[in-house]
Amino acid sequence: MRSAGNATIQKVEEINGPGFAARRMFPRFDQQAFDAQKGWMSPEHVAGENDKLVMSIHTWIVKTPRHTILIDTCLGNHKQRANPGWNNLDTPFLERLKACGCPAESIDFVMCTHLHVDHVGWNTRLENGRWVPTFANAKYLFAKREYAHWENERKTQDAAAVNGGSFDDSVLPVVEAGKAVMIDSDHQPDALLTIKDYPGHTPGSIAINLRDGGKQATFSGDIMHHPIQVYHPDWSSQFCWDLDLSARSRRKLLEDCAESNTLLCPAHFGGANAGYVKPQGDSFRIDWDR
Ligand SMILES: [Zn+2]
C-alpha cells in the first residue's frame, strides 16, 4: 500500500481496458511522436492496430489519521449513459471498497476533481427507484465554480451527450439530500489535504494534494487522461472544455509535481496508475511507482 507519512493511499478500480483511439482522443495527435513512446506504453497503456488508449477508471482512497476520503467516484451502477461501454453497469465496486477496509459507511468525505460522468457515478445508488447518496455518512465536496458550470450546462445539454444525465442522477440528489458542501480552493477538508485549481479540462477542475512526513501525492483527475500527455503536455483531449487553458494547466501540474517530487495520481492511468514526473528536454517523463 502506498503512503505519505501517516496517511495511506489505495486505488479501487471500476473498469479497465482499451477505449478511445489515440488519434480521436487528441486533436493535436502526432503519429510519429506517439510511436516514439509506444515501446514502453504497450500493452499497459496502448493496444491494438488503431492505437486504442488503455485506460482505467478508478477511485483513490486516502486515509489520514482523522478521515477517510474518496476521490472521484467512477461511473456507478444502473446508470443510463450514451457511451455503450459505460451504460447500465453492474460492477462489484462497493464490495471492492469494502475489501480494502473501506465500506461505504466509513467514508467521511467524497471529493470530485470535476463533475464529468466518470467522476460522479458512485455519488449515488438506486434505492426503490430513487437515486440516493451512496456514502450515507459523508459530506460531498464540490468546487463552486465547477458546480455552477454544470448547473448552467444542464439547461441546454443534450441527453445523448457523453455527460448527459449525470448531473441529474449523480450530483443533484446529493445536494437535495443536504450532503453537499460547495467549496473554494482554500478549503482544507483535513490537515493533510489542500486543493489547487487547474482549470481547462473543465472550468473548475481541481487537484487534491496530500502531504505528510516529507512526502506528497496529488490526485489530479483528468488534467491528464493518459501518460502520453506527460510527454506531450500540449495534447489536450477532445473532452477538454478549453484546449489551450487545459494545456497550460497540464504543464503547470507537471512542473509542480517535478519540482516537489510529488507522486502523480491521475484518474485514468493504467499499469502502475501513479508515478513521479521528471523534466526531460522541454517536456517531461514519468517514472512509475511500482
Ligand atoms: Zn475521467
Record keyword descriptors for this entry.
16 strands, globular, binds zinc ion, alpha+beta, Metallo-beta-lactamase, Chain A, 290 residues, eight-stranded mixed sheet
State the CATH superfamily name: Ribonuclease Z/Hydroxyacylglutathione hydrolase-like
What would you call the shape? globular
Number of strands: 16
CATH architecture: 4-Layer Sandwich
Structural class: alpha+beta
Briefly, what is this?
This protein is α+β, with helices and mostly antiparallel strands and 290 residues long. The protein is 23% helix and 31% strand.
Polypeptide structure, described:
With 290 residues, this protein is of the alpha+beta class. The chain has one domain: Ribonuclease Z/Hydroxyacylglutathione hydrolase-like (Metallo-beta-lactamase, Chain A). It is built from ten helices and 16 strands. The strands form three sheets. Strands 1, 2, 3, 4, 5, 6, 9 and 10 form an eight-stranded mixed beta sheet that branches. A six-stranded mixed beta sheet has the order 11-12-13-14-15-16. A two-stranded antiparallel sheet has the order 7-8. The longest helix has 18 residues, at 243-260. It is globular and about 50 Å long. The N and C termini lie close together (11 Å). The model has no long low-confidence stretch (mean pLDDT 97). Zinc ion is lined by residues 116, 118-119, 222, 267-268. Zinc ion binds next to helix 5.
